[in-house]
Task: inverse folding
């Protein structure tokens, strides 16, 4: 056909590929290419299309290069939306989830993504969560999973506990947006802090990660070096610990500030002290920047070095989750302490203990706290006077240590990972509580602990707790009556190990085997959204490292790191129309877009304001990938999404620009048809490249080779996929114009013979095949058929073109060799060679030996002159 019909040819090839896996044996080792598996929400969005296109291009390329590629897909299928759908609409979460999976799987297939569907799984399948539970028990047995009473973030809307990471900076739930409350509950934790140091320092092994992601992780882990200092409390036995990064400022401490959950504060509340309860109640509504404070009456701390007494406050700026939930307040040298002191002890001085080392330190301002560490200790510090901040800190900590009142320590901002969720749609925690035996793990042979079939509707708290028949069990140890743990696991647990499962998707006894995981992990390329830059990646790194320590896999060459290279793709923004008069968002059908350059609002004939914004229903700027594929085909959609922006940038989805891609595909196809007709009618049977090329052939051949090199680099190393698309376009134009010029050529050197055109055309098709699978396969089949060859897929493993060294000799041109001014013989040389190479080549020829060695009779070559176009050796 003169025109390819999309998406018809997509369907045609999809079913052929389904029946015929590409032939060939990998020769280059493994390549694990993974795109983050999605939550089965029900529909692919353009962000999914972007990420799966990238991973598919990279996967297809590596197969062509001869790698054993693992490119799997699965479903992160537990979680709140399914449960909420169940509650709101009475649908079984399982049914809802499975329907969504089916729909999205169909959409991925329409995108022509070459996933290894035989390894597909969903984390909500009992065959999967059985292993999630088994891994939980592995962590439990090694002391990495523990239960503790802890203040937790309680989301009053979703009725569940949230991890700190799921609460935003304003104290709202990431999912419901509700203001989060604090509650004390018994919860399960994973001891991620045990690996905090490794998780921090091993970031430096991750050369293939974006620096921004590493720095976010680093910040999240928040390694900080400082000291723990003990303050006695006047009239009490107990003491108070603070963490400080500035022990050098110890002599400037003027107060202590505590968080609301600090034991001293809790005790004051129980004591019913005047005003404290009211203040703590109000604290929930203060921000972390607030400088409100409440002085605990009758309580004073004692300075560990001077013995002076210090007031103790409760203050919202003290985090209960950091250090000891207690701060030694140094108003003269810390901005937060300064502001707090001004507000809560008006009129009182700040005692300075650090002074600038040089008189004109620009950071020094007599009215503000001096926070610099380049100063020195002030005369008021007595024996420490004159020491630098570093030396002063060391001397003070040494003295504290001698007194048993402090020591050096490292602190991490990261907290243990709270994995308990009081929800139904998650993996049940495989633990039984027995009043006699305590916390008893479910025995392995009893796994999975299946979710009960239906969700108990009414009531609050954990839905599993309301299912009596499910909760009551016999204790595995004593056989007495006991109760199941009713919390389910955070869905981040499911997704922290799924990449270990893909290589072993069909083993049922163990989550994964040592051999296969050690062979396939680390993942060679991991692609996903930057929204997972912290939690998912950190939790996954924690799991992979724990598994390596337990000998569940070798840990690979990166100390148990699971992802060698990481790409975070940018968002896809939609074209957004706004009425300039009212500021109202316009639906696409309210805008006349006949001329894409000049859209007009139908009602008012005005030009709308155009911007690109995050796609959302309220802005009418969403694009449905399925519509897009139905209209333009998978190939154009894929190429367009790659072409519009570098993969890590925000992409402005402008459908009117897709015609450029359609034109390219059309040109390529018509050219293939023309060549195929020539080949068909030529009567030639051997299409191998001729030995000597004409000038025109050489020029074309060189461009093909250069484009192969660039494409190889882009798809395998730099992932500059947008420029790759323009390179395909350029090469298509060059091949077509070379072909046309050759047909009109009169001189032999301007002609291009059919085998050379065929070679260039085939190479173009081959190297563009990772991006435009259906078009490439159709072109490839057409070219094969024209040559009378049987069909084989363009994706044959290992069939990516190598750079061909033989044809590089085609640049050899005969040159005359003059010796002592006389032309003696001629040698084929390349003009780009350097002097040594030319001299050596000349000398190695028979004539060279004759004239320059035998007949020269001991005389030395004195000068080699290489003028343009001819060679002289004298
Ligand atoms: C005294 C001091 C004097 C401090 C000074 C700083 C400057 P990073 O670097 O993030 O580790 N701090 C300790 N525990 C806290 C808590 N629970 N909530 C809020 N702040 C807390 O921060 C360490 C510093 O944060 C500590 O050093 C402490 O204030 C404060 F001139 O101690 B510093
Ligand atoms: Zn028991």
Result:
């Amino acid at each position: 056909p003169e025109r390819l019909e999309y998406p018809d040819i997509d369907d045609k090839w999809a079913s052929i590929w389904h029946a015929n896996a590409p032939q060939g044996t990998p020769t280059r080792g493994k390549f694990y290419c993974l795109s983050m598996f999605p939550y089965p929400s029900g529909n692919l969005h353009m962000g999914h299309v972007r990420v799966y296109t990238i991973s598919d291009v990279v996967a297809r390329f590596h197969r062509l290069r001869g790698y054993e590629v693992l490119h799997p897909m699965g479903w992160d299928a537990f979680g709140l939306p399914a449960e909420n759908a169940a509650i709101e609409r009475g649908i079984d979460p399982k049914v809802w989830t499975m329907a969504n999976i089916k729909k999205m799987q169909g959409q991925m297939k329409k995108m022509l993504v070459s996933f290894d569907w035989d390894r597909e799984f969903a984390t909500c399948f009992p065959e999967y969560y059985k292993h999630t539970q088994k891994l939980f028990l592995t962590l439990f047995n090694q002391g990495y999973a523990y239960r503790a009473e802890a203040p937790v973030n309680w989301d009053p809307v979703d009725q569940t506990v949230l991890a700190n990471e799921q609460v935003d900076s304003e104290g709202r739930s990431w999912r419901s947006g509700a203001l989060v409350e604090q509650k004390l509950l018994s919860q399960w934790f994973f001891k991620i802090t045990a690996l905090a140091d490794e998780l921090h320092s091993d970031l430096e092994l991750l050369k293939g990660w974006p620096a921004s992601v590493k720095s976010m992780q680093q910040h999240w882990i928040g390694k900080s070096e400082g000291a723990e200092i003990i303050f006695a409390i006047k009239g009490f036995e107990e003491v108070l610990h603070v963490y400080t990064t500035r022990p050098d400022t110890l002599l400037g401490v003027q107060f202590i500030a505590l968080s609301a959950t600090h034991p001293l504060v809790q005790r004051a509340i129980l004591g019913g002290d005047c005003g404290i309860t009211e203040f703590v109640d109000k604290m929930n509504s203060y921000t972390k920047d607030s400088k409100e404070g409440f002085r605990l009456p009758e309580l004073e701390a004692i300075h560990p070095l001077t013995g002076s007494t210090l007031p103790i406050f409760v203050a919202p700026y003290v985090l209960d989750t950091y250090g000891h939930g207690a701060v030694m307040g140094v108003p003269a040298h810390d901005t937060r302490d300064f502001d707090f002191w001004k507000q809560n002890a008006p009129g009182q001085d700040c005692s300075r203990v650090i002074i600038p080392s040089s008189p004109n330190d620009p950071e020094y301002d007599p009215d503000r706290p001096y926070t610099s560490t380049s100063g020195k200790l002030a005369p008021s510090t007595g024996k420490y006077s004159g020491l630098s901040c570093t030396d002063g800190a060391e001397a003070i900590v040494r003295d504290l240590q001698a007194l048993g009142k402090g020591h050096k320590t490292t602190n991490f901002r990261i907290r243990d990972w709270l994995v308990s969720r009081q929800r139904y749609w998650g993996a049940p925690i495989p633990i039984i509580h027995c009043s006699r035996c305590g916390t008893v793990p479910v025995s392995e042979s009893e796994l999975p602990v299946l979710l009960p079939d239906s969700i108990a509707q009414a009531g609050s708290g954990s839905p599993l707790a309301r299912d009596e028949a499910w909760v009551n069990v016999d204790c595995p140890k004593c056989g007495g009556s006991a109760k199941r743990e009713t919390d389910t696991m955070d869905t981040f647990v499911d997704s922290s190990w799924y990449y270990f499962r893909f290589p072993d998707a069909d083993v049922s006894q163990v989550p994964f085997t040592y051999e296969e995981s050690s062979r396939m992990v680390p993942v060679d390329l991991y692609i996903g959204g930057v929204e997972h830059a912290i939690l998912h990646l950190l939790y996954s790194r924690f799991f992979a490292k724990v598994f390596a320590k337990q000998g569940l896999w070798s840990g690979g060459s990166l100390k148990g790191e699971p992802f060698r290279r990481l790409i975070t793709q940018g968002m896809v923004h939609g074209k957004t129309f706004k009425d300039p008069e009212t500021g109202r968002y316009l639906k696409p059908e309210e805008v006349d877009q006949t001329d894409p350059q000049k859209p007009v609002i139908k009602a008012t004939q005005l030009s709308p304001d155009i911007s690109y914004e995050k796609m959302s229903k309220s802005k009418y700027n969403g694009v449905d990938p399925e519509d897009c594929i139905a209209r333009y085909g998978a190939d154009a959609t894929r190429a367009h999404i790659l072409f519009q922006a570098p993969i890590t940038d925000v992409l402005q989805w402008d459908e009117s620009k897709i015609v450029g891609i359609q034109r390219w595909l059309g040109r390529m196809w018509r050219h293939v048809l023309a060549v195929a007709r020539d080949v068909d009618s030529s009567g030639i049977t051997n299409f191998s490249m001729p030995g000597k090329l004409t000038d025109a052939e050489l020029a074309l051949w060189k461009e093909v080779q250069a484009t192969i090199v660039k494409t190889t680099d882009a798809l395998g190393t730099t992932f500059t996929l947008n420029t790759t698309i323009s390179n395909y376009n350029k090469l298509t134009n060059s091949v077509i114009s070379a072909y046309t010029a050759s047909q009109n050529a009169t001189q032999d050197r301007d002609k291009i013979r059919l085998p050379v055109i065929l070679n260039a055309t085939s190479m173009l098709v081959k190297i563009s095949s990772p991006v435009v699978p259906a078009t490439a396969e159709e072109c490839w089949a057409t070219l094969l058929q024209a040559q009378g060859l049987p069909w084989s897929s363009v994706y044959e493993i290992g069939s990516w073109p190598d750079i061909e060294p033989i044809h590089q000799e085609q640049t050899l041109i005969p040159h005359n060799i003059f010796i002592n001014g006389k032309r003696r013989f001629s040698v084929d040389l390349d003009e780009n060679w350097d002097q040594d190479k030319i001299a050596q080549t000349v000398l190695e020829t028979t004539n060279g030996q004759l004239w320059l060695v035998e007949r020269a009779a001991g005389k030395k070559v004195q000068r080699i002159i290489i003028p343009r176009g001819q060679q002289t050796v004298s």
Remarks:
- The chain has 24 helices and 32 strands.
- Residues 869-874 have pLDDT under 50 and may be disordered.
- The radius of gyration is 36 Å.
